[in-house]
Amino acid sequence: MRWIFPLTLLAWMPVSAQEATVFQDSDQPPAGAAPYEVTPDPEAGAHLPNLLHKLRTGFHPDRPLRVWALGSSYTNMLGSGEVWQEEIPQRFPKVSQVNYTKMVGNSCPWQYLRGWAQTLLVADPPDLVLTYTNGEPDDLDKLLTQIRSTTTADIIVPSLHWRQRDAEEHWDKDENAADQDVAAVRAVCKKHGVEFVENRRDWERYLRAQKLPIEALLKDPVHQNAYGASIVNRNILAHLPTEGSSALDDREVRLDAAALAKLEHSGFKLQDGRLRAAQAGATLRVPFTGNCIELIGRFLKDGGSVKVTLDGRPGSEFAAFLPSYIQGDEKNARSQKGDNPRDLAPHGVTLSQDCIPQQWTVLMTNDMGDYTLTGSITGPDGTGNAFKDYTSLTGQITLPADLWRRAERNKQGDRFTFSVTRATEDSVSFSPPSDAEADAEAPIFRTRLANALSNGPHVLTLTTTSAAPVEIEALDVFRPPLGRE
User: Fold this and answer.
1) Backbone phi, then psi, for 332, in 5-degree steps?
2) Is residue 136 exposed (0-12), middle (13-18) or buried (19+ Cβ within 10 Å)?
3) In terms of domains, do 262 and 146 share one?
4) Are residues 227 and 314 in the same domain?
5) For the chain, which terminus, N or C, has the lower number of CB atoms within 10 Å?
6) Cβ pair 241, 47 in contact under 8 A
7) Domain containing 378: what range?
């Protein structure tokens, strides 16, 4: 349904007519305007080598393309991945599914997205991260550093669309927004090898070519309408060319069975392109460098299992941990109209190497930012203040003040919870989860053995637990480009 919100058209708008301004949330081109056509960018995809390679060659074993979108309501207005789920399989037939996950906050800038990158992206390693919001260039730099240090994802950052608030100071004067120095954002993206989308430039070209006011693509003074959102999505997707050069760089490395057979092992044999063992105590020792490693194997009707050891320690004891999303209680105070517990909360947490997997609760004890921190196993672990960095008494948990958003609005009794889980597996079963999957094709499976490791050298050892057969096709190693040891 369309809706209208009238205002007064100001003299600085890119049309001279003085008449009532009309905002329409329409999915069609503005009245009398030609449909939007994407401006080809000869450099499109230059900073998306891994993503383009995956799109063009597909995944083995097959899995969805994983896209994470982090941002504000501007990101939210782009939809929930419907465009990606429709366009990607059409343009790249070897990718049949797209998992598009978004986390957005009201007017959430890059500063706080860094916390969500800590709690969400590492646990669900994406192929692509998209962020469409505003903020300080230094905060974008920190966000991109966080993503580049902990994931192997490619990244897309579009410049903001034109809004009513930008016109008086910037229309006919420069490319900037009221809250975005476009050149500075472009420079930060270049520093990190991130794909920058000239969305604002192309948006302006369309308005000028069609002699449209800025409001023509807005649903209110700041948010893009449905057609405006389609323009942003099209500008982004235009950076995914179906042809041209693309090759995986060293962020993701596959060790196939032939490569694994050259490593130290006993009791395993290379057979039909797979590394196979059918005896108890067979071992495979794999040195690797990275922060995550996954196994690709085959389910067998009477399949066995392997024990996982990392750097000489069982997976069940290895010091690698993941924090969950920090959940604000629905009963938390909402002191202003539009407040949401998600936006008045700590967004990030730092874990030590001496964590005990458990659930944690942050409870505000007054309206001045003081809180208690309690673990479900550890028990009370000290008191902190939202406006100061705090490390718990046991050293397990650090809550950074710069990742706590709108703490001044938190009230006594507000509660936040998150969990800490171990990021390593203790064993892997090659027996299918159900008889239906144990067919003659011996279906391939993928499982993550370890995640959230230090981004350096490690040794993985797999040891069979019985004479039941196991078959390994490959190991995938993930090496974030920053922070390598």
Assistant:
1) -60, 155
2) middle
3) no
4) no
5) N
6) no
7) 321-422
